[in-house]
């Protein structure tokens, strides 16, 4: 698996084939989107909605959207934020980590999380944070299995959803990516 940073065209658009791939990945995770409320109809996620969401993410110069590919196929996506809007928060955030639902349980989420952590570690960060929706027991189990611990409970900045804030030190390499506890998709940082 390798990470490919998403780049918009000079016109600010996503290339058509990439948008098609990413839309299919988002649409495959309708259960998460039903929980998160990120899209009006989680069973009818459209390319223009995904394009608008990704363009919005990329307006922040501290945000990076990473496409996870294996053998040329898009298997997942991660959105990271190198600086949180709250200056008192010293850590980067994983705002979203999502694997194609047809591939859940095969180790892709664990490998993707490990690659993101490695990337943040290589950039000199010593810890990473993320937010898990209160109602996302599966997401909480995934992240805690990877060594993340709860440090706070608060509402997310964008939609006011109740979340658990988790943190993980990045002083050692990530866990063995060969073991996968389940799917992982998370909301934007709290």
UniProtKB/TrEMBL annotation:
Record-linked PROSITE patterns: GNAT (PS51186)
Gene3D superfamilies (alphabetical): 3.40.630.30
Annotated keywords: Acyltransferase, Transferase
Start-end of Pro residues biased regions: 172-190
Molecular functions (GO terms): acyltransferase activity
Region (Disordered): 162-190
Enzyme category, top tier: transferase
A Pfam family recorded for this sequence: Acetyltransf_1
EC numbers on record: 2.3.1.-
Domain N-acetyltransferase: 30-171
Protein name: GNAT family N-acetyltransferase
Species per Swiss-Prot/TrEMBL record: Streptomyces cellulosae
């Amino acid at each position: 698996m390798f990470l490919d940073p998403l780049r918009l065209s000079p016109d600010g658009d996503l290339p058509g084939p990439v948008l098609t791939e990413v839309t299919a990945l988002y649409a495959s995770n309708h259960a998460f989107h039903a929980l998160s409320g990120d899209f009006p109809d989680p069973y009818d996620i459209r390319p223009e909605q995904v394009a608008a969401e990704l363009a919005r993410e990329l307006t922040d110069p501290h945000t990076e959207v990473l496409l996870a590919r294996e053998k040329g196929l898009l298997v997942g996506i991660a959105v990271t934020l190198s600086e949180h809007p709250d200056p008192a928060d010293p850590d980067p955030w994983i705002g979203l980590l999502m694997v194609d639902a047809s591939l859940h349980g095969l180790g892709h989420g664990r490998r993707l999380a490990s690659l993101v952590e490695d990337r943040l570690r290589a950039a000199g960060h010593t810890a990473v944070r993320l937010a898990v929706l209160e109602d996302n027991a599966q997401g909480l189990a995934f992240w805690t299995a990877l060594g993340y611990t709860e440090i706070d409970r608060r509402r997310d900045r964008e939609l006011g959803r109740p979340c658990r804030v988790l943190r993980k030190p990045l002083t050692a390499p990530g866990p063995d990516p060969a073991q996968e506890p389940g799917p992982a998709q998370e909301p934007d940082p709290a």
